[in-house]
Design brief:
By secondary structure, the protein is mostly beta strands. Helices cover about 0% and strands about 50% of the residues. The mean pLDDT is about 95.
């Protein structure tokens, strides 16, 4: 069983940076993809980035502005977000797959992920 706990959300101003953290426990091997998604009010959950086997993959909408990083010693996966704007306001979720062989670039749907955290809220004021 895999457990995920997000932290680091809050209220920030446009242009600020913020780092979210996902604490992982359980059977989170390198073959498990860990991802960040977000869901804004009235919208579907959207893929942001994932990491597996030391590689990373980003959604086009956040590439260059968000950075995902995995710390295998601390069992955490972070999401560094820069130059935030009000459109980034959402609940942010950490998710993990079972061990898979499919490329990380193919693991961009919420249906690909079996384990989810409870989410952390990010609000960006203008």
């Amino acid at each position: 069983q895999v457990q995920l706990v997000e932290s680091g959300g809050g209220l920030v101003q446009a242009g600020d940076s913020l780092t979210l953290s996902c604490a992982t426990s359980g059977r989170v091997f390198n073959s498990v993809a860990v991802a960040w998604f977000r869901q804004a009010p009235g919208k579907e959950r959207a893929f942001l980035a994932n990491t597996r086997w030391g590689t990373t993959y980003y959604a086009a909408a956040v590439k260059g502005r968000f950075t995902i990083a995995r710390d295998t010693e601390k069992n955490t996966v972070s999401l560094q977000m820069s130059n935030l704007n009000p459109d980034d306001t959402a609940d942010y979720y950490c998710a993990a797959t079972r061990p898979l062989l499919r490329p990380a670039a193919q693991l961009t749907s919420a249906q690909d992920y079996d384990y989810w955290g409870q989410g952390t809220q990010v609000t960006v004021s203008s």
